[in-house]
UniProtKB/TrEMBL annotation:
One of its GO terms (cellular component) is mitochondrion. CDD domains: NAD_bind_1_malic_enz. The active site is at 134 (proton donor), 205 (proton acceptor). This is Malic enzyme. Divalent metal cations. Prefers magnesium or manganese. Residues 301-573 form the Malic enzyme NAD-binding domain. It comes from Thamnidium elegans. It holds the Pfam family malic. A divalent metal cation binds at residues 276-277, 300. SUPFAM superfamilies: Aminoacid dehydrogenase-like, N-terminal domain (SSF53223), NAD(P)-binding Rossmann-fold domains (SSF51735). PANTHER family: MALIC ENZYME-RELATED, NADP-DEPENDENT MALIC ENZYME. Belongs to the malic enzymes family. Signal peptide: none annotated.
Amino acid sequence: MLATRNISRLSNLVKFSRRNYGLPASAIGVGSDPRKDKTVQLTPLRGVNIIHDPLLSKGTAFSIAERERLSIRGLVPPRCQEMDKQLLRIKRNLDALETPLAKFVFLSALQDRNEILFYKLLINYLDELSGIIYTPTVGEACLMSHSIYRRSRGMYFSSQDRGAMSAMVHNWPHDEVDVIVVTDGSRVLGLGDLGANGMQIPIGKLSLYVAAGGIRPRSVLPVVLDVGTNNESLLNDPLYLGMGHPRLDGEDYYTFVDEWVTAVHSRWPNALIQFEDFKYPHAYNLLNKYREKITCFNDDIQSTSAITLAGILASLKARNLSPTDLNQERIICVGAGSAGVGVCEGIVDAMVAQGKVKSREEAYSRIWMLDQDGLLGNPALSTVDSTAAFDERHQNFDERQRCYIKSDLSDRLSLEDLIEKVKPTVLLGLTGVPGVFSEKAIRTMAKYQEKPIVFPLSNPDTRAECTAEQAFKWTEGRAIFASGSPFADVTLPNGKVCKTNQCNNSYSFPGLGLGITVSRARTVTPNMFLETANTIADLASPAQLKEGVLFPGVSHLREVALAVGTRVCEVAYEENVATAVLQPGEILSDVVQNSMFVPEYIPLVHSPNAH
Ligand SMILES: O=C([O-])CC(=O)C(=O)O
Ligand SMILES: [Mg+2]
């Protein structure tokens, strides 16, 4: 597991935000949220209905007085146990399990019984457990989801629900929903089309929204849009739980998604919608359709872009270069799907914002993009036979991909040949194809760079473009390495310890969601992502950067989310998209911090009229 890392600079960072925006008082001031200083929780439920409600249950921790008030006397073992004893039991049971998937199933069951305890455990052991509830194990859980299914969580909207969605949203029991993560399961991590099995991804993302971003467990909603699947093995599996037909596409698909967006937006107009793991080009088309109209973003396009940019900016510092010299980099991106194009667009935005390129075109010229066939280059220079398939390849590029086509280089040039020609400083992998960063590619890069930046970003770890061990071995330990899923630090035969980084959007989306929720931002703006990147790029200390550590470790995700959330909130006010009104004298960083959910038991009181 990754070592705990010093984050002393975080507190400095948050201080910058101790700024009073001096906005007029209002009844809906974010700091005056009555939920925050609640000392008791009212519930209309009693008896077994409390014990079986994961948002209310305390397992064995109900006090004697509570047991009396709530009519659960005798329904739980007699000894009233504090949370620390519960944690001890849970952790022992968890440690006794042998496989990551067994741990995943165990943790899901805990989440389904007692959410406070689940989040307490998760926060206490974030470094260890994020790899179970999130990547890489969540990938395995998606592959196996139909076999390990126990209990439903979240909502499914399927092709048979067309025409019924505006009624269905009222089946969800909670009026307050702050964050919705939605997938159509069409490109689950780097694992491809997993249909309704993709539900584990929104669930895992929202668990991090709560644990790291401090969003309340009651106000998150995981959603699958089940428009069918083209995955033959799932279609033929009698245990599969999704719709048994090929995916809707074209007009049918967009009409379906539109019905869903309209339904959720009308019930929860303030909720942030995070689009997750949608295939290219649907991912972009949906983002472009809704980004101005509702509060939404695409995680794979925009928050992956923010954390990757943060990694590159921090790596500039690690190489004793200025982070404002991004335009000096030569970047090769292998992968032209939603994440690849999204990451590159974020880099271009940042180069333009830094003001050192004359045009967007100049920024594009610093990035070389490859898809599964090789470089997006000039067909006229290609030495490969021109075939119908070849022509189709170019016709299929859209305007976003075309920006990266290089007219001076042969189309479909291989990664190895391109590296020899371009001598890149940064190599990004967003392909979902393991082994794409070959030994020759990395060794060639290392011939020209003292500290090659190697980021195999595909998830889970089985889809990474190379392993940490390979990257360090092939560069004699000189690489600065960051991967989407965690890899342990590597010790070379000469004893040198090479540090790995996890460059995953789990560093960016919880803070983005926190800032957007607290400010009640109407829309999610490009600057929010740019500032997320700048904020995270500043978190590592000079000593950490020197040893190739770019970010605080995963155990600090909560502090990272606070720093990002505060900055995103500021941007929302600066850009006039915030709709929550601050009370006079309120300090933004305090407001954000105080709004963060902390898992602790609150005394429950029965009240027939509460909801
Ligand atoms: O879920 C993750 O680990 C990162 C991500 O969004 C993806 O790979 O699609
Ligand atoms: Mg994703």
